[in-house]
# Entry
Amino acid sequence: LIIVTSLLLVFLLGGSCVPMWNFDSSLSSIVKPYRFSIVKWEARTIPHEVREWIFGRHEKVDNEVGTVMEYFSLVDQAKALKSEIEAINAGSGQGNLASLEAELNRVEKQRMALEDAVEKIISKQIKEILAEQGIFNPLVGLKVHFPPLSFTLEKTPYLLVISPRDRIESIREITLRQNLSLEEMEDIEDRVDKLGVSSLVVKLGGFGGTYPAFVVNDASLRFTLDTATEEWLHQYLVFKPLGFLYLLDLIGVSRNYDIATMNETVASMVSKEIGAMVYEKYYSQYEGDEKQSQGAESEFDFNREMREIRKVVDEYLAQGEIEQAEEFMEQKRQFLASRGYHIRKLNQAYFAFHGTYADKPTSISPIGAEMKKLRDQSASLKDFLETAAAMTSRQDLVESIK
# Structure
């Protein structure tokens, strides 16, 4: 707890330094009313967590898997009801609005009543799989889970991502409060873009900069398993060279986009493997339902299309053709929308954010292939994690796979 608190202070103090140049000063004035306050959130949450650790008495759930599946069924019901309500409000749907809103309220109450139990069940299941893989903590050889795996299912903060216009690279990331409206997001982006950069407000699926971590409460079971694991891995990695250097990047002490990409890619890859193991062990009997719910995939390959867009954009930017790159991205955004893939804003900041995950189609970084090669060469998932976590540069990665 002392180490986690100290780490939190590093986050807070690093994020509160007075800007020393005009860009940061102007940026600070724009985002100040919208910042997410970690201090206020932790002040409200940590006392509750401490009471839970010391005095918590949790009722035993007879059917843990059934409880989790019931929760995510309610999530799906709520999303369907919200879509119907939005359609009616937009004038493109029919139905009794009052009745639908009452049903949504009932479903949301049922979902929220299960939240605490589901958080604890999933945390326990993830810890069991981590233990089976020999992954416990980053500090000592004892079989003790640290940091304690804990997350909360609720609406996550937003993230303002800023990239230069002439290249794709995240140069600033600022956490914003959860209740932003679309109008507020677009106003922030418009004002930041006038500073001569490319910006995007992103809805986060998870956020590990707090304790417990955030995991969005309206996603699928598979996404929740992966994200809860990934946010814990980010906290785990902070106590290793790779993660600590990423922390310095996040708070602006030492910017290093390669380190950010390596850290995000490792956490993403390991979390997907752990998430798949949890799902296979506890929820494989529902696999048919999940596949069916995804619907039939069209012949259009979104991943391939995004890779091609990224390559063309990089070529434009390398030639100094910034306006052409931006026009091309807007044309492609409209094309993707015509294929059913709605992206609110496709720009340099979009690729800067998603590009840090080198195992994603929005990245063309060779780090993704290099990490996959290292994983293939590793004796186990634990071996891969420990090897990658000890790295301090991309050169370490290159040398390790030779």
Observations:
- Residues 12-20, 292-297 have pLDDT under 50 and may be disordered.
- DSSP finds 16 helices and six strands in the chain.
- Strands lie at 151-153, 158-164, 172-176, 197-203, 206-207, 213-215.
